[in-house]
């Protein structure tokens, strides 16, 4: 219950289905369509109003701060990204009414206490390969300016450092260094998403890097940069 | 009729046995045996053919065929053994003659014997599976004479010795040789081959091996080839005179192998006389000989081709990267053309116009021309030079010849789009300064480019010609109209250029003198009156002016200057002296152009209509300029500013190249979109290959640039990566 954040009833269901094996119970649980716990829409309205900005029908920076406080998490904690993903938030540091309410509904929470209890399981979602990829790719659209096609370099670097703290990639610091020295421009969506593939599939010594591998040119340049500066030995 | 008893005729065999005299066979045989002896002893005239034939016939009929046959074998063998002795006894040179003579005799005898024994030959022989008489005779000759222990070796040695002597220059009896070899052939091709041909080939091989070694030590390549050719011809002649025709191919291949194939590399690379020297010195005869000899051996042609190719590449490369050559673009191109001409002639005259050699030449040229990335610019400058003055007075046919040759070089260029850019610039200058030697020649060049590269390549160039013609019509219309009343104002000639067709140049306007301005405005009014919706911008950096100037002692000169220079000079109508700053302010000409303009007016000997203080070469901000009263020139008309096509300076070159790269990007994108639209899904490497193929007639796209374009198209949502396989791209409709 602590890990999946589900109710006792569902937990018992899962354990029974798997013959009381803990691992099996997890498998069972996660393969079920998420059982929506019933939420009280009145509570959700109240909750929204607590955080909503006085002048605009949105939760803005101050509201988000307050929310984080109530949830007992830091505002730059990566779990907020996961929360935003569930809410399908359009952009960082803002939640619309629709996003907030339907987000909480899908999480199955209607009070701060329930929300707080859900936090560990949300954090755990980052460990799931597929979910991590979805959250990673979501982060691009979320972190960039609404009007822009590309993500500003500084923001991108910040996001990468946050994300790759969760999913360890040894080359992340060199990557950020390289971008600041050689590229100094915004990051395209394709480069963003392909970087994750690169981090996942190519080993840090670049032994399985294939120059014909249709990687974005920025990544090819990064590889050159690593060779030129002796960070990785050529001819692997 | 009385009833006669019918008699039945019955035929019955003899009731009594016919007794053949047992001695009959023996007697008959003796007659025949005697006859054979007589035949061999040249006494055949006393014999009766009919009688002998009958005797033989009877023997066979009475079943004595076997006796007859074996008797024949025995008798003939005995005679042949005697003959063998007499041949063996022959001394020295008479050996062959004796052999030949006896062979002739034997054949005659054999024929007569065969005729006599014909009945046996036709009946007894086949049914008893015996060898027919004629063949028997040959076999017996073979076994008893040719393969006789004493004769066999001697025969072979004699023949080989004679051939050897003939090779060394002696004259031998060819008729006799022919008879002997024919004899061997008649005895059976295996006899010829085993008893003569095989050893002959072996001996020849070692002979030529030795001789070729000797030659190659002391001869140069040309001489060696002459000798080899001579030997080859000798052998062929030898075969035709006294050997079997089938030996020709075998002996020639021996000579080819020993004299040519084994020494090919050494010959071709021989210092001071090898292939490269022959090419350099245009030794057509030697090259032709080499071509004809080497074609006979495997790898012969490829050896020549390879050496020629690497020589061409090296020479071409030296030509193309030599910094001295690069000073004069026209000379540079002329040298390339000369090199092409030279080698075309060699291939034509000496190498039989062989296509594979032509291809090797083409690929070599293509290789080194593109080593220098200024080649497109230089070729365009060469054409410019020819069209401006070089082809003056040349006949129409010769013009075509020159242009066709240039087109050949053009085909070798990988970066044809760079050539296009320069050609446009140079053409614009030629057209605007009116400095083309022949309109027909210009048009001819355009047609050739169109044939080579398609309509798109030349459509803008043609647009430029059209503009020039249209401008002439416009000027006529202008002067006929009311707008052109201007009394004694300056005469204006305007060329109206359509923006898309002419090379783009950013033009900073300058302040035109008042007289000019008013005339320009009149033209503008006229033009816009007939063409609404258009915009005219004066390109002051491309114009020229003719000014009449009067100097100190009253000398009048007509100066041909650029528009900028005109603006500067007109200022001196109101002041004798102007400082740089004043000139700059008044004309508003951009600084770098102004400096160049002033330099050409004040610092060039023979053209210094202005005087500068201080007298330095460079223009400084605080210089002062004076009208040069003391200016003199031999010519009444002095040309000062010309807008002539020149080799670009480094920064200009850099700029042009950048523009070329920029122009390539949309072309690459268009190619990618075209390909993806029809293929829908394609992997990265295939896209790169396809794009390169599509664009190679214009330039060679860089794979990194292609990749960047793909990413740009992904960004703009023309393409996406496939979800499952990240190396695949998908077209988004």
Automatic annotation (TrEMBL), chain B:
Residues 374-602 form the Cullin family profile domain. Keywords: Isopeptide bond, Ubl conjugation, Ubl conjugation pathway. Pfam families: Cullin, Cullin_AB, Cullin_Nedd8. One of its GO terms (molecular function) is ubiquitin protein ligase binding. It comes from the Eukaryota. One of its GO terms (biological process) is ubiquitin-dependent protein catabolic process. This is Cullin-3A isoform X1. It comes from Elaeis guineensis var. tenera. The lineage of its organism: Eukaryota, Viridiplantae, Streptophyta, Embryophyta, Tracheophyta.
């Amino acid at each position: 219950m602590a890990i999946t954040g589900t109710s006792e009833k569902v937990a018992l269901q899962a354990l029974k289905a798997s013959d009381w094996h803990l691992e099996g119970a997890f498998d069972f649980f996660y393969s079920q369509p998420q059982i929506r716990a019933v939420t009280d829409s009145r509570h959700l309205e109240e909750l929204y109003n607590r955080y909503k900005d006085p002048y605009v029908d949105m939760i803005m920076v101050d509201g988000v701060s307050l929310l984080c406080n109530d949830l007992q998490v830091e505002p730059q904690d990566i779990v907020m990204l996961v929360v935003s993903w569930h809410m399908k938030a359009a952009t960082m540091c803002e939640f619309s009414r629709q996003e907030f309410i339907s987000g909480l509904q899908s999480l199955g929470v209607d009070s701060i206490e329930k929300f707080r209890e859900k936090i560990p399981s949300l954090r755990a979602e980052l460990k799931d390969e597929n979910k991590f990829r979805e959250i990673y790719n979501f982060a691009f659209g979320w972190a960039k300016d609404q009007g822009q096609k590309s993500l500003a370099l500084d923001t991108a670097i910040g996001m990468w450092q946050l994300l790759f703290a969760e999913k360890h990639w040894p080359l992340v610091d060199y990557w950020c260094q390289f971008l600041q020295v050689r590229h100094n421009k915004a990051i395209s969506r394709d480069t963003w998403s392909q970087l994750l593939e690169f981090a996942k599939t190519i080993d840090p010594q670049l032994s399985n890097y294939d120059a014909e591998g249709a990687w974005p040119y920025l990544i090819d340049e990064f590889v050159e940069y690593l060779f030129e500066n002796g960070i990785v030995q050529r001819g692997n | 009729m009385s009833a006669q008893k019918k008699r039945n005729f019955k035929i019955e065999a003899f009731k009594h046995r016919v007794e053949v005299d047992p001695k009959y066979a023996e007697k008959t045989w003796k007659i025949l045996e005697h006859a054979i002896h007589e035949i061999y002893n040249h006494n055949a005239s006393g014999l009766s053919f009919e009688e002998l034939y009958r005797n033989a016939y009877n023997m066979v009929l009475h079943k004595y065929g076997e006796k007859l046959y074996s008797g024949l074998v025995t008798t003939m063998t005995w005679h042949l053994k005697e003959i063998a002795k007499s041949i063996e006894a022959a001394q020295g040179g008479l050996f062959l003659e004796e052999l030949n003579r006896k062979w002739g005799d034997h054949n005659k005898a054999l024929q007569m014997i065969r005729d006599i024994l014909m009945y046996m030959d036709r009946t007894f022989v086949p049914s008893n599976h015996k060898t027919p008489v004629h063949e028997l005779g040959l076999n017996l000759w073979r076994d008893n004479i040719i393969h006789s222990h004493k004769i066999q070796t001697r025969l072979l040695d004699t023949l080989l010795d004679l051939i050897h002597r003939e090779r060394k220059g002696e004259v031998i009896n060819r008729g006799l040789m022919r008879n002997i070899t024919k004899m061997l052939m008649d005895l059976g091709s295996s006899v010829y081959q085993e008893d003569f041909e095989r050893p002959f080939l072996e001996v020849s091989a070692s002979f030529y091996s030795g001789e070729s070694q000797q030659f190659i030590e002391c001869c140069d390549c040309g001489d060696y080839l002459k000798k080899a050719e001579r030997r080859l011809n000798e052998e062929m002649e030898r075969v035709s005179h006294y050997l079997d025709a089938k030996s020709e191919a075998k002996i020639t291949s021996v000579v080819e192998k020993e004299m040519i194939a084994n020494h090919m590399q050494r010959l071709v690379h021989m210092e001071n006389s090898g292939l490269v020297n022959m090419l350099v010195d245009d030794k057509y005869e030697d090259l032709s000989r080499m071509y004809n000899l080497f074609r006979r051996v495997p790898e012969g042609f490829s050896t020549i081709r390879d050496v020629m190719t690497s020589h061409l590449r090296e020479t071409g490369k030296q030509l193309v990267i030599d910094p001295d050559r690069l000073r004069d673009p026209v000379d540079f191109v002329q040298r390339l053309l000369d090199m092409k001409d030279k080698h075309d002639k060699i291939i034509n005259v000496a190498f039989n116009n062989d296509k594979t050699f032509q291809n090797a030449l083409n690929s070599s040229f293509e290789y080194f021309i593109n080593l220098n990335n200024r080649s497109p610019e230089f070729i365009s400058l060469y054409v410019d030079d020819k069209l401006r003055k070089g082809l003056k007075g040349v006949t129409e046919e010769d013009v075509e010849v020159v242009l066709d040759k240039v087109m050949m070089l053009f085909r070798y260029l990988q970066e044809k789009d760079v050539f296009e850019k320069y050609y446009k610039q140079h053409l614009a200058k030629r057209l605007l300064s009116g400095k083309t030697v022949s309109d027909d020649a210009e048009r001819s060049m355009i047609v050739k480019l169109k044939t080579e590269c398609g309509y798109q390549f030349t459509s803008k160039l043609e647009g430029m010609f059209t503009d020039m013609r249209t401008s002439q019509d416009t000027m006529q219309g202008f002067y006929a109209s009311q707008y052109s009343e201007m009394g004694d104002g300056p005469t204006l000639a305007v060329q109206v250029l359509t923006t898309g067709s002419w090379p783009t140049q950013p033009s900073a306007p300058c302040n035109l003198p008042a007289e000019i301005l008013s005339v320009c405005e009149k033209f503008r009014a006229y033009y816009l009156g007939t063409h609404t919706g258009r915009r005219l911008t004066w390109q002051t950096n491309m114009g020229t002016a003719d000014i009449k100037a009067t100097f100190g002692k009253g000398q009048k000169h007509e100066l041909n200057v650029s528009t900028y220079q005109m603006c500067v000079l007109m200022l001196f109508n109101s002041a004798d002296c102007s400082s740089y700053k004043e000139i700059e302010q008044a004309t508003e000409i951009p600084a770098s152009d102004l400096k160049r303009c002033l330099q050409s007016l004040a610092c060039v000997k023979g053209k210094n209509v202005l005087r500068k203080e201080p007298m330095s070469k460079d223009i400084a901000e605080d210089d002062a300029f004076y009208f040069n009263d003391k200016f003199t020139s031999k010519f009444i008309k002095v040309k000062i500013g010309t807008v002539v096509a020149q080799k670009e300076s480094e920064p200009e070159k850099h700029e042009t190249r950048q523009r070329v790269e920029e122009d390539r990007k949309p072309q690459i994108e268009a190619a990618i979109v075209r390909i993806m639209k029809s293929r829908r899904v394609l992997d990265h490497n295939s896209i790169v290959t396809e794009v390169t193929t599509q664009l190679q007639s214009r330039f060679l796209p860089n794979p990194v640039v292609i990749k960047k374009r793909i990413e740009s198209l992904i960004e703009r949502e023309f393409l996406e990566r496939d979800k499952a396989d990240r190396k695949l791209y998908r077209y988004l409709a």
